[in-house]
Amino acid sequence: MELLRFATAGSVDDGKSTLIGRLLYDTKTIFEDQLEAVERTSEAMGAGYVNLALLTDGLRAEREQGITIDVAYRYFATPKRKFIIADTPGHIQYTRNMITGASTADLALVLIDARKGVLEQSRRHAFLASLLGIPHLVLCVNKMDLVDYSQERFEELKDEFRHFAARLDIADLTFIPVSALRGDNVVDRSANMGWYEGSSLLHHLEEVHIASDRNLIDARLPVQYVLRPQSDEHHDYRGYAGRIVGGVLKPGDDIVVLPSGFESTIAAIDTYDGPVAEAFAPMSVAVRLTDDIDVSRGDMICRRQNRPTAGQDIDAMVCWMTESGSLRQGQKLALKHTTRSVRAVVKDIKYRLDVNTLHRDETVDSLILNEIGRVALRTTQPLFFDRYSRNRETGSFILIDEVTGATVAAGMIQDRVH
C-alpha cells in the first residue's frame, strides 16, 4: 500500500489536534483503552464532551495550556492507503518543531478558524510549507459550525488565502470546509454543507496523487555502509549499502562513484528480500559492481551522464534551531549532508527573511532561534548535491555544534555560489 506523510499546521487553537483525533476516531483506528483514557481525562478537565485533541496532545504542558508544543506522530490506515501524521505546533516559538515535523511530508494541512480568518501564523506555516517544498497544500477552514456553515464566509476566506498563496511556490492547493469537533467533511461528506461540491478530507488524502512527486530522473545512492561478510559462503561479496534518494537503478547501468570519479557497471542490486531487477527511492539496497573499486561511506553512486553538482561553496536557506548562541559570519560548524559529514564555515549571511511579510532584511549579521535566512557556506570537502527544489534529500543538510554535538540548524540548498 502507498504511504502518505502529511503534516498539520496553523495558528494556535485552530483545531489541528482535534481534527487528527476526529480522523483517528471516525476511521476506527484507536484502541478502546485509548478512547477510555481520553474520556476520563476529558471528564477530569471539566470538558462537557470527549476532547479528541488529547489523542495527540500527550505532554502535560500541552494539556494544561491547551496547545501543541512538540511534534506528535500518529499512524493509521484505510483500505486505500497508509498514513503518517505529524501534528506540528502552531506557536511562533516552536517554529523549529514545525519545520522538523513537516520536512518529510508529502502534503501539508493548514487549518484556519472560520471566525478568525487567515492569521499571521496561518500565513507563516503556509510559507514554511512552500519553503520546505511540500508539493500539496490543503487549507481546511475549520469550525464551520460556529459560522452557521456559511458558504459566503468560506468563499471569502478562500479568496483571501489564495491571494496570499499567489506569492508562494505551491503547485497544488485545495480548500475544504470542515468542523473537526462535529466531524463535518472530515471522513464523510457533510449534510450541513450541501453547497460544497468537493470531497471530504479523508477522501482527498486517499486520492491525492503523490507518485509523480518523487524524482525518478536523477539516480542518487549515498553510500551508508560497505557490506563485506566474512563467512566462507560469502567471502567474495562486496555490496555498497544505502537508501536510494532519487531516480532508478538497474543491473547493467553504467555508474560513477563520487568523489573518486571511478566508473563501473551495476552487477546486481540486493534487498532484504533478495535481488531485484530495479530499485528506486526510497528503497534501501546493496549495490554490487562489476569492478573492484574503492567505495566508502559518504561517497555517492550516480549515473555517468547524470551527476549532481559537486562543490564546496553552498548557497542555502537556513533555519536556526537552538536557543544557545546564534548563527554568525565566520562561525565554524559540522555539516551533515546525506551520509557525508564535513566541516563548514559561514562565509556570509545575505539576509534574514521575515516569514510573515516575506521581507528580506539585508542588514542583519546573525540569525537567532527560529529565524530563517539565506547563507553562504564553505565546506572543507566537496558535497554532491542538487537544488532542494529538485531533490529534497540531496538538497538538504543539518548543521551541528562541534562542541555539544547538538543539531543547531537545518538548511535547504538553493544553488552553488558562483
Question: How far do the termini sit from each other?
Answer: 44 Å
Rg calc? 24 Å
Overall morphology: globular
CATH arch. level architecture of the largest domain: 3-Layer(aba) Sandwich
Strand content: 35-45%
Task: Label the structural class.
Answer: alpha+beta
Mean pLDDT: 86
Q: CATH homologous superfamily of the largest domain, by name?
A: P-loop containing nucleotide triphosphate hydrolases
What percent of residues adopt helix (DSSP H or I)? 10-25%
Low-pLDDT segments, ≥5 res: 59-70
CATH class of the largest domain: Alpha Beta
Q: How many β strands by DSSP?
A: 25
Q: Main sheet?
A: 8 strands, antiparallel
Q: Output the CATH topology of the largest domain.
A: Rossmann fold
How many H/I helices?
Answer: 7
Query: Any idea how many domains?
Result: 3
Quick structural summary:
The protein contains 7 helices and 25 strands.
Structure explained in plain terms:
Helices cover 17% and strands 36% of the residues. It starts with a strand and ends with a strand. It is built from seven helices and 25 strands. A hairpin with a 2-residue loop joins β19 and β20. Strands 7, 8, 9, 11, 12, 13, 15 and 16 form an eight-stranded antiparallel β-sheet that branches. The chain folds into three domains: 3-213, P-loop containing nucleotide triphosphate hydrolases (Rossmann fold, 3-Layer(aba) Sandwich), CATH 3.40.50; 220-303, Translation factors (Elongation Factor Tu (Ef-tu), domain 3), CATH 2.40.30.10; 309-416, Elongation Factor Tu (Ef-tu), domain 3.
